[in-house]
Fold these 2 entries.
Entry 1:
Amino acid sequence: MTTRPVLLELRGLGKSFGALAAVDRIDLAIAEGEFFTIVGPSGSGKTTLLRMLAGMEQPTAGDIVLRGLRINDVPANRRPTCMVFQSLALFPHRTVGENIEFALKIKGVAPATRKIRALELMRLLRLPEDYYPKSVTKCSGGERQRVALARALAYDPEILFFDEPLSAIDYKLRKTLEKELKDIHRETGKTFVYITHSLEEAMVMSDRIGVMRAGVMVQVGTPNEIYTAPRDRFVSEFIGDVNIMPVRRVEGGRLRSDAFATDFTAPRMPEGFAAGHLVVRPESLRFVTRDGEAENVLAGRLYNEYALGSRIQYQVRVGAPEGAHVFIVEKLRQQAYAGALDDEVRIGWDGRDSILVGD
Amino acid sequence: MGSLGLRHALPLLLFLLLGFAAPLLAVIGYSVMPERTFGLWQAPTLENYVNVFTSTSWISFLTSLTFAGLTVVILAFACYPIAFGLARTFGRWAPFLTLLFTIPLFVSENVRMYGWVLFFIKNGLMLGTLKSLFGFEIESWLFTRGMILLGMVYVYLPFMLFPMTLGIAMVPKETRDAAYDLGASRFQVFREVDLPLSMPGIVIGLLLSFVLAVGAIAEAKVLGGQRAIPITHDIEIAFTYSQNWPLGAALSVLLMLVVGVLVVGVLRRFDLDAILGRR
């Protein structure tokens, strides 16, 4: 959490549809000017949460507090917030300029002033000025994203909500827009609350991330905290490919893996830890050729390799072919494994490179 | 490939030519034949068209256009709230209500018209009941211009309602939410988003019901008691009792022209593809 003042606070916020709790008593504080991202798989409740924050859904429990004022009953059109929708929801019968000016027109701003502001926003969002009279339906995917963002900024909201606006965009453009969005956040200084199912997207842009699962905010932290210290197995798996082994604590501060009938050196052990999962990231695993090269070593067979651009990912199978445990090892291309598929290999890691998590 | 496709399409093309184009061409041909002739091989003349404007037929034209115009105006205002409800607010009741509006279409128009007659006729269902139960003596509304209009509104309601409902249902919810989120009131959302984006449905409904209403005849005959003479009645008389096919054909051609010009004009004015964001 930064030292900036809290702008938006959720106090036990919940939304139930009958017996189903789509959002389950969430407590959260978002600071002014923060880029906060809520991530979670489909059905985790993140869109319902965002719609409550935007005023499009009424909470069934708890409060939404903006600058100290409870805004549960303030309708969406009176909240100082604005949403960029997943579909962008541009007005197809209006031009780029008319879309951007919409909120100003509703506020009764004079046409000439509206146009000046629209052109300012178009410059900020790198939209050519001659797009002003262009129909939004003639714009490309990236341009439409920019129009949607300019339209929301024209409302001059205190908080901008984003409902997975980049989910339907091809990879290359998405990467560009992620960076642009972060730049615009910096340039405008607005508070951004962004939801996505892609933790990778969240990592690139966010000051802090909240991970949701089944309506519950399971962990809130900086991208680094989420990556290096996931709270549980769900968060650690959600981050991407990981190697997970069930372990229990044994005497001497070591961890026992019954699956591999061996002990591992432990990372920093959480207080009171008795049993859980040992998480080793693919980039923390390495091929071991000499004894003593790694604290923990497992023998297996190199099953396959996958080129990922600058990196190569290896699949190593440990144990008998039927019911073998699959491990993923990731190396930079210049550190590629020199042998061949089906080689007998040993993979290893040090205790400090692993993480212990609960269920 | 092209010639193969053409050969396969030939039966359908011939069917269309015979079934659609040939009667039209015959009507156009007859409209320039001399009065009361039954052949198509005489010197063409425009006297039938002149006769339309020198006889009382132009009044029938105006009558039909006026009734059709009034019908679509009433339908537009009556149907939009119902269509809005069906598309947005009636929820699980919408299919049932849609069925209620659809059921009358299963019954012949004439049968429905006579149903109204039995309902409104002196000593009929309504007036007879009022008289016997309460002693009210009310003049029958049958055979008035208002009754013709009521009949037309009743008959053509589904043709306005369903395209409108479809048009309103096609407005994306997120687009409406976006307008509301950008500070618009409910009325402004309706004015800025719902109405323009549902315009294709409205325009189709207006055109469909106008084109059908301008060719209406049963309402004037059954409910209006010939209080107003629509142009379709003149056309029928010309082709039957008067045995003046060329005059009937000229009236038909003029009616087609008026309707055609109107339809093309409206479609040019309202670029439906542009409204829907396809162009």
Entry 2:
Amino acid sequence: MAADAESLMISSEEVMRQAASWKDAGKGVAIATVVTTWGSSPRPVGSQLIVSDLQEMLGSVSGGCIEGAVVTEAQDVISTGVPKLLDFSIADDDARAVGLACGGKVEVFVERLT
Amino acid sequence: MDRALIDTLAAAKADHQPVVVVTDLADGGKSLIENGVGIGEIAIDEEILAASAEALRNDKSRTLDAADGRRLFLHVFNPPLRLFVIGAVHIAQSLAPISALMGYDVTVIDPRTSFATADRFPGVKLTHEWPDEALTDLKPDARSAIVTLTHDPKLDDPALHSALNSECFYIGCLGSQRTHALRVKRLQQAEFSNVQIDRIHGPVGLNIGAKSPPEIAISIMAEITSRLRRSAG
């Protein structure tokens, strides 16, 4: 969880700067943004995670429970250019398994940086 | 999302300019709203403008189910909240930590070096410049609040001149009704209009019967919060 704790500390400007520099280096980049939350979700609306086509990631859209799925979906978005609106219900069991007291619902919009 | 938007957002932040990025959640189309004007792929109507203004005021990004059926995401990019306190006095020692807890980036301004010390204000940004010079450097914007606490016109008045010429959302001055009446007279003599002078909250703070410095600090922050969160009128 150390990496997650670190990424929670990174400012949104740093995340965007990194997205720009990946793009400038010729990488495919997707930006994932939390657009709605219900119940207790660990990251507020507007939180962002960036993903490269080399599966690099920076930032966060949850406390770690949905990042894996977002990275996978992001690869699809990077190759097709078609944005996706992902809907996650963070089940209580899953939440407990990753040590989070959430059990919320999160919508994440994933789009390609062009 | 266009790579150029990242540079635009960085520039807006450097200029302390609040902006809203509108995204159509169906196709990823975007527009940027700045100063109440929208530019980009999404036509910005009154409904979107009003919702964006409210989102900026609340500092909360949100989705909007527009009347035409589109589902939009309004992403708020606000400059940081800042508080400039003139006078490193006892009340300032409470105001600094309370405002910091509320998310304000606070700077205490006092040229009297024996007042503005790191011992009295641990971890707080201090400047020993004269208040008008300090505020010229710090450039208060629409997300800034300015509070004068010195009771000394030599220090408070130059700060007020800078504050009244800025877009700051709140100006408050410590002092009794009588002190405030004298202050108003001096500002009128300095050719500030009554409309400008009416921006000043004096005596400072909501009337909650505050007595101790921490209580006064809370009444000031309550008044600042009310100005920040409630729409005009």
